[in-house]
């Protein structure tokens, strides 16, 4: 059991609060040992989903299976999952070691043994030197490591992380996310990470599950979701895409796949509405037929070979293979 | 002048002076006065300014003093235990089981309703209830639980403690409720995530985090009970004594120096008790 790789499966999982449906019969199977991100705007049901998996929210309908075993009615500690809370939820009256050893104390493990186990966990997250500190004597990043150690000491099959990076400043956020990824690779267990930041999801996830309005819009490897969005919502939410209505239908196209040519030589005619210099490239806003705004990301050197001004007539072109048809 | 006033030390002292003045006039001076008077001499008909330990010698030499102090501690400890049990339970229910804030506030206000009437009235209203032919006895008799009226319901230690608990439980509820409301609810979830049972959560998370509130409530209840004299007089039918009654008897006999000496000893005792309590729990975070 200890190291068995178990997959987590959601079967028409539903959460209702009164008459509002927070999670609407979603189905998904998380492969064992993956880093998965539940991505979506606030109120999309991603947190409710995570809390249901953790056991902190009752399941209204459907079930949660871990390694084929229905865990939806079990208490949180019996599920083989562990949760890391958004604000870390460290016990303010306990030292770092006691925080990490809390679950062992609840199980009645002897004091010496739990101190030793907690020490191992603190070593894993590189916090050995801080065992005697109280949580309020730690920085945000250190608190997060302690919270990680506390969640991992229960040897979970699935670690659930509820917006774990949102309380950190941007610099620390980038450092902690690479540590999370490293830890996941070392432990080989499934990490299920809830976030509303698409950059965070792209940077971390083997698999991204995009949620919106209580349902899963699209799920797949990070690269697939980014390169081939299936719905307009996913294209817009992942960013870096244009959603364009053409006579043949609605398509998504990456803005760095849109090329700028002279007027009359492109696939569509356009006029420049705005220019933004962004360092490695220039972001060019253009208006095409039907008052549609398109963004072209032009590499900096190419743009300045032939600079454009707002108001210029241009043509826009792309390879047809770059167009991804969107479902309505 | 302008520059003198704008110096930080000067303006600091000036800002602090109104409160200092009020406290000096109405707190420090009276206590100093009591301490001074406690060293005076008194006979049946006169009070003589002096510096004499006679009052204290008499106080510490009399077995009555120890009996009365012991009785006062007994009331304080039993009342403390009862108010803590009831207060903690009520606060816990309000803070963790009442979900909506509207209901929390409504129920909390409900707890304060008894405080809309005066202490004495609330206390005296127990008398017709607990008396020999009172409501409690007649109800018990007609229910067939007892044959003869219970004597210990009124004018007994039971009555005194019942009144104390009734009067002072809210002083326990309020600070405990206040600390409990500040406990992050995700801590409870984190404890449950770590496999803690309800009792374990209570013992390992809620009680330790409620300690400052418990301590503030304890200080309220202990000081109120130890300083009380009227409740003991009414509810014990003048059959029991505590330190407050000792002082009030001395005053009734115009033995001011003796009363002052007892008051000083009581004040010192209460201060020592609070000092001991504060050694256990740091309440500064709550203030």
From TrEMBL, chain A:
One of its GO terms (molecular function) is ATP hydrolysis activity. SUPFAM superfamilies: MOP-like, P-loop containing nucleoside triphosphate hydrolases. It comes from Actibacterium naphthalenivorans. This is Putative spermidine/putrescine transport system ATP-binding protein. Residues 8-238 form the ABC transporter domain. It comes from the Bacteria. One of its GO terms (cellular component) is ATP-binding cassette (ABC) transporter complex. Keywords: ATP-binding, Nucleotide-binding, Transport. Coiled coil: none annotated. GO terms for biological process: quaternary ammonium group transport. Gene3D superfamilies: P-loop containing nucleotide triphosphate hydrolases (3.40.50.300).
Automatic annotation (TrEMBL), chain B:
The keyword Aminoacyl-tRNA synthetase does not apply. Keywords: Cell membrane, Membrane, Transmembrane, Transmembrane helix, Transport. InterPro entries: MetI-like (IPR000515), MetI-like_sf (IPR035906). It is a multi-pass membrane protein. Residues 69-277 form the ABC transmembrane type-1 domain. CDD domains: TM_PBP2. It is found in: Cell membrane. It comes from the Bacteria. The keyword Glycosyltransferase does not apply. The chain crosses the membrane at residues 12-40, 75-95, 107-129, 158-177, 256-281. Its main location: membrane. Belongs to the binding-protein-dependent transport system permease family. CysTW subfamily. This is Putative spermidine/putrescine transport system permease protein. It comes from Actibacterium naphthalenivorans.
């Amino acid at each position: 059991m200890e190291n068995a790789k178990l997959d987590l499966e959601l079967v028409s999982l539903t959460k209702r609060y009164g008459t509002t449906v927070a999670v609407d019969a979603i189905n998904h199977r998380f492969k064992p040992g993956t880093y998965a991100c539940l991505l979506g705007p606030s109120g999309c049901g991603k947190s409710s989903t995570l809390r249901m998996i953790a056991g902190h929210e009752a399941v209204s309908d459907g079930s949660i299976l871990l390694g084929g075993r229905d865990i939806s009615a079990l208490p949180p500690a019996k599920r083989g999952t562990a949760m890391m809370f958004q604000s870390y939820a460290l016990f303010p009256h306990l030292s770092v070691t006691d925080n990490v050893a809390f679950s062992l104390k609840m199980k009645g493990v002897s004091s010496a043994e739990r101190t030793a186990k907690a020490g191992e966990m603190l070593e894993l997250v590189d916090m050995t030197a801080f065992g005697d500190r109280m949580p309020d004597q730690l920085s945000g990043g250190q608190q997060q490591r302690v919270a990680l150690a506390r969640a991992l000491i229960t040897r979970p099959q699935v670690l659930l992380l509820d917006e774990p990076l949102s309380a950190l400043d941007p610099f620390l956020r980038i450092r902690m996310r690479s540590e999370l990824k490293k830890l996941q690779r070392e432990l080989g267990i499934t990490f299920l990470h809830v976030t509303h930041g698409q950059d965070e999801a792209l940077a971390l996830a083997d698999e991204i599950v995009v949620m919106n309005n209580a349902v899963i819009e699209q799920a797949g490897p990070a690269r697939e979701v980014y390169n081939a969005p299936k719905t307009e919502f996913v294209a817009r939410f992942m960013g870096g895409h244009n959603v364009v209505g053409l006579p043949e239908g609605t398509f998504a196209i990456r803005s760095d796949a849109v090329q700028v040519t002279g007027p009359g030589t492109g696939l569509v005619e356009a006029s420049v509405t705005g220019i933004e210099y962004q360092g490695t490239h220039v972001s060019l806003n253009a208006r095409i037929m039907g008052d549609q705004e398109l963004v072209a990301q032009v590499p900096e050197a190419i743009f300045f070979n032939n600079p454009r001004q707002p108001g210029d007539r241009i043509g826009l072109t792309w390879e047809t293979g770059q167009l991804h048809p969107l479902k309505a | 002048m302008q520059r003198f006033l704008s110096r930080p030390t000067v303006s600091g002292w000036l800002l602090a002076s109104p409160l200092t003045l009020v406290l000096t006039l109405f707190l420090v001076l009276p206590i100093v006065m009591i301490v001074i008077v406690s060293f005076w001499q008194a006979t049946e008909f006169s009070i003589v300014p002096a510096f004499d330990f006679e009052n204290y010698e008499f106080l510490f030499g009399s077995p009555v003093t120890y009996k009365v102090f012991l009785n006062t501690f007994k009331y304080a400890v039993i009342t403390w235990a009862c108010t803590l049990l009831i207060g903690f339970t009520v606060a816990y229910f309000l803070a963790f089981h009442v979900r909506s804030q509207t209901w929390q506030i409504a129920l909390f206000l409900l707890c304060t309703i008894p405080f809309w009437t005066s202490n004495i009235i609330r206390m005296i209203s127990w008398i017709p209830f607990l008396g020999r032919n009172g409501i409690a006895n007649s109800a018990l008799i007609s229910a067939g639980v007892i044959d003869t009226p219970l004597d210990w319901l009124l004018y007994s230690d039971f009555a005194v403690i019942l009144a104390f608990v009734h009067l002072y439980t809210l002083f326990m509820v309020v600070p405990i409720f206040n600390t409990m409301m500040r406990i992050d609810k995700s801590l409870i979830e984190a404890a449950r995530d770590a496999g803690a049972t309800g009792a374990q959560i209570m013992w390992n998370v809620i009680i330790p985090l409620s300690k400052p509130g418990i301590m503030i409530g304890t200080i309220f209840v202990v000081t109120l009970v130890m300083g009380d004299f009227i409740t003991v007089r009414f509810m014990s039918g003048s059959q029991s004594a505590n330190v407050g009654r000792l002082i009030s008897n001395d005053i009734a006999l115009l033995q001011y120096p003796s009363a002052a000496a007892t008051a000083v000893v009581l004040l010192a005792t209460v201060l020592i008790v609070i000092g001991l309590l504060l050694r256990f729990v740091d309440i500064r975070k709550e203030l």
